[in-house]
Specification:
With 432 residues, the chain is an alpha+beta fold. Helices cover 52% and strands 10% of the residues. A 6-stranded mixed beta sheet has the order 4-3-5-6-7-8, sandwiched between helices. A two-stranded antiparallel ribbon has the order 1-2. Strand 6 and strand 7 form a beta hairpin. The radius of gyration is 25 Å and the shape is elongated. The two termini are 48 Å apart.
Length: 432
């Protein structure tokens, strides 16, 4: 067994020394805040005592052909990111976590992923940062890819410690660190509904899209949609805030029952406008943060097929509020899902990178507070909007209301049949 020490915190904080693969494997859920599933995790170590630094997580690529380029990208991302924070890693620890498929054993998982582990070790070594330990965790057991001694690291692996029985578990409990279940469970709280309610939500999104898309393409209509979206979101937040909070699963079910299909559809589509989404991001602290987070999670679940791509906005807002309120694991999960849906969603990209680099969210909070103050000041000196419209636009040029009947915009379902529209895409004019 490779003997080494890793400290869980800097010198001025409580330190726990981890010795060997067993204690490293046990510490992983506390490092991440959840039990990873199907994940490659890399953790930077600093100093002679191996203080934990930056860490990153990615789903294990399914195709072995992707392993080499992914390994190079992960090594570069972790090392360069640490350097940007002013501290190049002295070593790296790697974890490969994957549950066995039906008929597969943990030992088979370990052997199948061995080439990927070697690619990761080589990629780090090429950047002059050694891999101190590489572990595979599967089916309640762990294996070391670095230890050749079968006496301490046998081929059948070693059993993980019982939850809550280790030194790390005791220290985490003392420090108030919580493990929020598995990554799969955390992602499920944000996944689109698959119940019978999904069909009703799709119809509501179809109908709302037919009504709101033309407005979003008109400057005056876009302002109206923004105001209506934010007003409705505030109403839903108030409704959720007045509901009792129970266990996470029961709370999610209760929240889903408090939001109607039409209400969810209107806010989801309204948030596709960047400026509206940025206004909603101001609800990130104080009493409104909790109800805002519950709303963004609920709306993420309402982005049913074929509207999954619309979830990038509420998922990013959920990630932002989580990060702003100190829940970094929850933030990384939500932002990771947003980028899985839309890798080019700029707001999610920026937040995800900032969160992973350990930056302080207070900088962004100050900016959003400033925007809110400036806007409040403008409202105090703004002339009546209806008067401006009467003087700025002659009556003959005002846009007429869309008449009912055949002249009304096509429904999203009709556009899908005719091939003239793609309702699964966001309706905003920017990509985040």
């Amino acid at each position: 067994m490779n003997q080494h020490h890793e400290s869980t915190g800097p010198a001025d904080e409580q330190q726990i020394t981890l010795r060997g693969p067993a204690e490293l494997a046990d510490a992983l859920p506390y490092l991440m805040g959840f039990h990873p599933n199907d994940s490659v995790i890399m953790v930077a170590l600093h100093g002679g005592r191996g203080r934990f630094g930056g860490r990153l997580r990615l789903g294990i690529p399914q195709s072995p052909q992707e392993w080499a380029p992914v390994a190079e990208q992960l090594a570069e991302c972790l090392i360069k990111g640490s350097e940007r924070r002013g501290e190049r890693p002295d070593a790296i620890v790697i974890f490969l976590c994957q549950d066995p498929a039906e008929g597969e054993s943990g030992s088979q998982i370990m052997e199948r992923l061995r080439p990927f582990a070697q690619r990761l070790r080589t990629a780090c070594g090429e950047l002059d940062v050694p891999v101190l330990e590489a572990l595979c965790i599967s089916d309640g057991r762990y294996w070391s890819y670095c230890c050749p001694d079968g006496r301490c690291c046998p081929a059948e692996g070693n059993q993980l410690a019982m939850p809550g029985t280790s030194v790390m578990a005791a220290a985490a409990a003392y420090a108030g660190i919580q493990v929020r279940g598995t990554l799969r469970e955390m992602e499920a709280r944000l996944a689109p509904l698959t119940t019978s309610a999904a069909a009703g939500q799709q119809r509501a999104l179809d109908s709302a899209g037919a009504e709101l898309v033309p407005k979003l393409l008109d400057e005056e209509g876009r302002e109206d949609v923004a105001r209506e979206t934010l007003d409705l979101a505030r109403l839903l937040m108030k409704r959720l805030g007045e509901a009792p909070v129970t266990t996470p699963s029961a709370s999610d079910i209760g929240d889903d029952g408090l939001i109607g299909h039409d209400e969810a559809a209107a806010v989801i589509l309204g948030l596709q406008d960047r400026e509206t989404r940025d206004r909603a991001a101001e609800w990130m602290e104080g009493p409104e943060a909790d109800s805002a987070l519950r709303l963004w999670r609920a709306l993420s679940r309402r982005c049913v097929a074929p509207y999954e791509e619309h979830a990038a906005a509420p998922l990013t807002l959920a990630g932002w509020v989580s990060w702003s309120t100190g829940d970094e694991p929850g933030a990384r999960v939500a932002l990771g899902l947003a980028l899985r849906i839309d890798p080019m969603y700029t707001f999610a990209q920026l937040l995800h990178e900032a969160c992973n680099q350990g930056l302080d969210p207070e900088t962004l909070r100050r900016c959003l507070r400033g925007e809110r103050r400036v806007r409040a000041g403008r409202r105090g000196h703004r002339p009546d909007r209806s008067a401006r419209q009467r003087t700025a636009r002659p009556a003959a040029t005002r846009r007429k209301k869309t008449p009912s009947g055949s002249a009304r915009p096509e429904s999203a379902a009709a556009r899908r049949r005719s091939g003239t529209g793609t309702p699964g895409r966001r309706v905003s004019q920017d990509d985040g």
